[in-house]
Amino acid sequence: MSSSHRLIKALTRQPVDSTPVWFMRQAGRYLPEYRQLRQNLGSFLAMCKNPEIACQITLQPLQRFDLDAAIIFSDILVIPDAMNLGLGFKENEGPFFAHPIRDKAAIDNLPIPDPEDDLGYVMKAIQLMRQSQSAVPLIGFCGSPWTVATYMVEGKSSRNFACIKSMLYNEPTWLHSLLAKISLASCHYLHAQINHGAQVVMIFDTWGGVLANREFSEFSLRYMQNIVSYLKSQVLTCAVPIILFTKHGGQWLELLAATGCDGLGIDWTVDISQARERVGHRVALQGNLDPAVLYASPERIQTEVKKVLAGYGHGTGHVFNLGHGIHPEISPEKVQVMIETVRQYSLVYHQKEKIYAS
Ligand code: 1CP
Predict the structure, then answer these.
(1) Is 29 a catalytic residue?
(2) Sign of the dihedral defined by the CA atoms of residues 102, 103, 104, 105, in that order
């Protein structure tokens, strides 16, 4: 199934019949059935750690919508949780760590989790998804080492990244040791996810865009590069498409494409036609509707979806997505409009005579 599915074809820039579509945070709080489960079970982390529940939530958006991918229900912070930092989630405030990383000793003491054991619940959820009725490829993921490190050092979500940026400028060797550890853990983790059935993997670099230009290469890109190089060097994992997504990383698309990844996520600040000119001969592009468009009327949503499709233009290599995760207040009906518009209006970009399978 998987290599013939349009998501895999688009990511490997082979001809497709229509533009594949999925969206970040497609399983989550905008869905009433998710909120219901969450209310009954109480804790987000407990839901992630229960493979049957995680599988059920992964399937929820697929039962409602005609999507081209499933993304395993989990979080980028399960790696630091498995490193014993004491992860919790405060209602309406997001994640926090009981033991944030503030000195060299804490970094030296961090264990590298064994994915089969310490993160076995994610592997089990992936296996259950592959045994389910779902006919679409399953995306596994992790955070970029830089993005995961921001939470580990700040101890929570941050606005100005004061702790990690002071580490970056005052004690850069500490930060490099931390990033190297997260990167090694992420290599093992993604390898195991693929081993258990993930058919695409994505690295979420949500906070790469807060780095100064030169620091982006040294502190974020380099460690994503390590993960891509590792996966591309392994027999089991070398053929699995890898998507990198640096939010607000539009200025670094050429650098990101040169890592050897297969697809690049782009946020809504990027002009998709210019992005295609810059890197479309090397990688597929995923995105990039502004998630806030889903607050607009159905007619306006249609117009904006059509602009993204037209912006990419004819031929394969485009995976329709939002430029970042869906907001929790969005009504599922609006999501339906977005997906139907992609289905209906993308066909024309893939008519045989017009395919440029670059
Ligand atoms: O019910 C709840 O309150 C939990 C909300 C929630 C959900 C549904 C969190 C807490 N995480 C998730 C799931 C999740 N997280 C997925 C599932 C798959 C899907 O996309 O459907 C994925 C891929 C993530 C990845 C993730 N977690 C990222 C990277 C992508 C992004 O959205 O930027 C980040 C930064 C996190 C940390 C995190 N986890 C949860 C929250 C609220 C946050 C962000 C906090 C912040 O803004 O700093």
Answers:
(1) yes
(2) negative
Residue from 61, 56, 51 nearest 24 by CA: 61
CATH number of 6-357: 3.20.20.210
3-class DSSP state of 244: strand
How does DSSP assign 10-21, residue by residue?
HHTT---SS--B
CA distances from 19 to 4, 5, 136, 217 (A): 14, 11, 14, 31
What pLDDT does residue 42 have? 85
Query: How does pLDDT run across 217-273, given as a tens digit for each residue?
Result: 999 999 999 999 999 999 999 999 999 999 999 999 999 999 999 999 999 999 999
- Residue environment code for 310-332, b if the CB has 16+ CB neighbours within 10 A, otherwise e: ebbeebbbbbbbbbbbbeeebee
- Asked if 284 and 320 touch (Cβ cutoff 8 Å), the reply is no
Annotation says 38 is catalytic: yes
| Domain parsing of the chain, residue ranges | 6-357
| Residue of 6, 13, 30, 38 with catalytic role | 38
Does any ligand 1 atom lie closer than 6 A to the CB of residue 36? no
Tokens of 312: 């990419």
Distance (Å) from CA 95 to ligand 1 centroid = 9
24 lines ligand 1 (CB under 6 A): yes
- Cβ 313 vs Cβ 349: under 8 Å: yes
Please indicate, yes or no, whether the overall pTM of this predicted structure exceeds 0.90.
yes
282-340: pLDDT as tens digits: 999 999 999 999 999 999 999 999 999 999 999 999 999 999 999 999 999 999 999 99
pLDDT of residue 92: 82
Q: Which pair of structure tokens corresponds to residue 208?
A: 């790469």
Residue 124 corresponds to which amino acid?
A: K
Order the strands of the 200-205 sheet from edge to edge. Answer: 70-71, 138-143, 200-205, 242-246, 263-265, 284-289, 318-322
Rounding to the nearest 10 degrees, give the CA dihedral for residues 313, 315, 316, 319: 20
How much distance in Å is there from the Cα of 75 to the middle of ligand 1? 6
> How many Å lie between the centroid of ligand 1 and the Cα of residue 286?
19
Task: Using the predicted structure, report yes or no on whether residue 358 has a pLDDT greater than 70.
Answer: no
